[in-house]
Write a structure and sequence with these properties.
Strand order of the largest sheet: 2-1-3-4-5-12-11
Helix content: 40-55%
Distance between the termini: 168 Å
Number of helices: 27
CATH topology of the largest domain: Rossmann fold
Radius of gyration: 46 Å
Number of strands: 24
CATH class of the largest domain: Alpha Beta
Shape: elongated
CATH superfamily of the largest domain: Response regulator
CATH architecture of the largest domain: 3-Layer(aba) Sandwich
Strand content: 15-25%
């Protein structure tokens, strides 16, 4: 207590006006400290900064500025921390703030620092991207990227086959997890599965349940990334389940090990053989002297009993260096007579090398320590077994882990000194079970089909998607259990099912398109099919030299020709008696009948008609010819251009056309084949894999008009964070490069249907459904026929006497009369 009183008096002297016999005036610069003064971290920070400033000004007694610390107790509450920071800025007039013990506190203090333009420095918040947007927030912490590389290197050197990642489901841990997963994948470390816990909701029973599932799944290597309080409960549960024994490997990140002092004795005793990464502070006389005096101060103050020294070394050294850098920056500003608004830049430009001896790397507003100790829990002690750094800053006395031989002897769980191997896989060559959901709509059995075995009653799965999945998962020695999914036809629901039922399912297979929304809940492999959407239609027959006959069917051609001749005959019959142009020899008259009838096609008849009845016939017939020629021209034009027009319209507004997945009446492959065959639909828009089924089975019938890369193809779904997705993706790449994937496509997309359905011959399929028929234009011929009949009837009535006289005078009539008299 006496030492603390002395320190307080010394601090008051800093804020005083007189410092020595020469009455030198010191300028006081206030710095705020916002921490939970009831926690060990808060007490260490406060005492370390006070002791560091005392040492600094004792050495630099000529400095004209003095930093004084105004401490506020946040009690671990982010809102109280915010209120304390506001009070320090408004009433305390502080020029900088040191604090923030959690990510929530950091975000609040960072936001207020942006408005006040006052730097906030934190040593207790892990490195996180969410704070990068705050220019006045300085993070003083370890480099999680370097740590991730170190853990990856350690796993590789230990030759561990697969791992399970256990993490705390909070924002900063999730960011750190993503960095770990990325480096694991880059380093070829297979992540078997991930498990998350929440400190607020993870009761002991739930932890035991989750750990028991991992044990049942034969998981043996664990990487743990969570807070020390949650780790304490985790290891006590693991110890109860017998998971801290020979054959298991536990690796802890610096998130836990830098706060190791908070673990209780029960947790420490259950962590025997655990390996951990913690921030490295080089041992020096200055560090030992400072931490020894700090520990003695805290013991004398009876604020804490620190049984382990590593936490006090890490946090106290960081606090020491922060205090010294602040004091140096303040003095530099005073010497330049500059404005305090430059304090942030002056801090970042400070060349002060504190007890960290330059190990800090300045990246933006972050001071990152990239060197780590690799430690081993033995008894109640933490033994250093090696060092890791990716900064190449190691002096002669340091050892960088580049091979397993450079690590000290490790005592593993169970007390063994031999590197554990995955005992469960080695024992009896047992295979792990992979529970796979399978889409079971069976709309396209060539892609995926699920049908019961009539003998065993078990489900048999087949199809292109299934064959690719089995081939790509085969190298990983899994026993596959396929479970049909028929709850919904929406594959977004399938992704959600896989996400929410993590304890029931491990993967999902089928005609599943890779989409952004689904990727938020699951991990996709690389696509194993072609990407994009295409437009399918019936292939048009090759055009011939007789294409001009196509607009009309045969019956309409015959009827039109017959009425041309009939019209010529009716006009000739009516006009013949009074019009010289329709007279002459029989050959001339027959020619006139044909000429006059067919010349009406182009309205080229020049003969002047004398009778009104013949004119009526011609007027009616010309009207019909006009409609026939217009219809012929329109249909001929449409036959050549309608496909292009429809395709262009389809590209502009595809929602007007029937889509494969959204159609309510067409469900199966055969339904769509028949719909395209009979013209119910003209175009089919769908993803390329579906269209390949049509093209493969009926290559001479269908054709693809175009495609657009708006779809990502089919992929396999795995649990979020599972290492299977990248590993299976690599196998898919192998299958594609070795052409095995191409061979599978040929087997499933061949012309003969794999399910016994005969090949359909559409060689006679043409555009008959677009031709005009006599039924469609029958009304015109009825009108013409009636008009012709009326004119003929009128003509016969008008010429009845002449007809009777002609018959009387004809030789035929005379012969008939003589013949009748012969029998009298």
């Amino acid at each position: 207590m006496e030492i603390l009183v002395s320190l307080s008096i010394f601090a008051l002297l800093f804020s005083g006006v007189v410092a020595d016999s020469n009455n030198i005036v010191f300028e006081e610069v206030r710095v705020g400290l916002v921490v939970d003064l009831g926690s060990i971290q808060g007490k260490i920070l406060k005492t370390s900064i006070s002791l560091a400033l005392s040492d600094f000004y004792r050495v630099n007694n000529s400095y004209r500025t003095r930093v004084s610390v105004l401490a506020r107790d946040s009690q671990g509450d982010p809102l109280l921390a915010l209120a304390a920071a506001k009070d320090l800025l408004q009433t305390g007039k502080v020029k900088a703030i040191v604090g923030a013990e959690s990510l929530q506190e950091a975000k609040l203090l960072a936001a207020i620092s942006e408005k006040a333009k006052v730097p906030v420095i934190s040593t207790l918040v892990p490195n996180t991207l969410s704070l990068n947007k705050y220019n006045h927030f300085i993070q003083w912490t370890y480099d999680i990227t370097s740590e991730a590389k170190g853990i990856t290197s350690l796993i590789q050197e230990l030759n561990l086959k697969s791992i399970v990642v256990i993490y705390e489901d909070v924002d900063d841990c999730r960011e750190g997890l993503q960095v770990l997963v990325d480096h694991f994948q880059d380093g070829g470390v297979y992540i078997d599965r991930t498990t998350s816990f929440l400190e607020s909701s993870s009761e002991e029973d739930y932890m035991v349940y989750q750990l028991r599932k991992l044990k049942s799944a034969r998981a043996a290597v664990f990487v743990v990334h969570m807070s020390e309080m949650l780790v304490s409960r985790l290891f006590q549960c693991a110890d109860k389940l017998g998971m801290i024994e020979e054959g298991y490997v536990w690796i802890l990140t610096a998130r836990t090990m830098n706060n190791f002092h908070n673990l209780d004795g029960f947790a420490v005793r259950s962590m025997q053989g655990v390996i951990g990464f913690r921030s490295y502070i080089p041992v020096s006389e200055q560090v030992m002297n400072f931490t020894s005096r700090l520990r003695q101060l805290m013991v004398d103050d009876d604020t804490a009993q620190i049984e382990t020294e590593h936490f006090s070394v890490v946090i106290s050294v960081w606090a020491h260096d922060i205090a010294c850098i602040l004091a140096t920056a303040v003095e530099n500003i005073w010497l330049r007579a500059s404005n305090e608004s430059n304090l942030l830049e002056t801090i970042k430009q400070s060349g002060f090398k504190g007890l960290s001896h330059g190990d800090m790397q300045i990246v933006g507003n972050k001071y990152l320590l990239g060197t780590f100790e690799i430690v081993n829990m033995v008894g109640t002690w933490v033994s250093r077994i090696g060092l890791w750094s990716c900064y190449n800053l190691c002096g002669r006395r340091r050892v960088i882990v580049s091979s397993i031989n450079e690590l000290e002897t490790i005592i593993w769980p169970g007390g063994s000194g031999r590197i554990p191997r995955h005992r469960f896989l080695e024992k009896n060559s047992e295979r792990k079970l992979l529970r796979v959901l399978v889409t079971s709509r069976n709309n396209f059995p060539h892609l995926v089909a699920v049908r019961p075995d009539p003998e065993t009653g078990l489900n048999i799965v087949s199809g292109f998607c299934i064959e690719v999945f089995k081939a790509s998962i085969a190298p990983f020695n899994y026993e596959l259990e396929f479970i049909p999914y028929n709850r919904s036809s929406n594959y977004d629901d399938l992704a959600n099912e896989l996400f929410t039922q993590r304890d029931k399912y491990d993967a999902a297979v089928g005609d599943i398109t890779i989409t952004y929304n689904r990727s938020l809940y699951v991990d996709f492999t690389l696509p194993y099919t072609e990407m994009g959407v295409g437009v399918l239609t019936v292939k048009k027959k090759k055009e011939s030299m007789w294409t001009f006959f196509d607009p009309l069917d045969k019956s309409l051609w015959l009827a039109t020709g017959a009425f041309f001749i009939l019209t010529g005959f009716v006009v000739w019959l009516v006009e013949r008696a009074v019009n010289p142009e329709f007279q002459g020899s029989w050959g001339q008259q027959i020619g006139m009948i044909l000429w006059f009838g067919f010349s009406t096609i182009v309205f080229a008849h020049r003969e002047k008609l004398q009778k009104m009845s013949s004119k009526f016939v011609v007027i009616v017939w010309v009207f019909v010819v006009l409609i026939l020629t217009s219809s012929y021209s329109a249909n001929l034009t449409s036959t050549k251009t309608i496909s292009r027009i429809q395709y262009s319209e389809l590209l502009r507004n595809p929602s007007q056309y029937r889509m494969l997945r959204t159609n309510s009446t067409l469900n199966t492959f055969d339904d769509y084949v028949q719909a395209l065959r009979d013209g119910t639909i003209s175009y089919l828009i769908s993803e390329i894999p579906y269209l390949n089924v049509f093209l493969g089975h009926y290559p001479g019938v269908f054709e693809m008009l175009g495609r657009d890369t708006t779809s990502n193809g089919f992929g396999f779904m795995f649990q979020k964070g599972s290492g299977l997705a990248p590993n299976v993706s690599r196998e898919i790449v192998k299958l594609r490069s070795s052409r095995m994937l191409k061979d599978m496509e040929k087997r499933w997309f061949q012309e003969l249907d794999s399910f016994g359905k005969p090949h359909i011959d559409w060689s006679e399929n043409d555009d008959a459904f677009n031709r005009l028929t006599i039924h469609e234009l029958g009304g015109l011929f009825v009108i013409v026929g009636v008009s012709h009949a009326l004119v003929l009837a009128l003509h016969l009535y008008q010429t009845r006497r002449d007809i009777s006289r002609a018959l009387w005078e004809s030789r035929l009539f005379t012969k008939l009369q003589n013949f009748s008299g012969f029998y009298k």
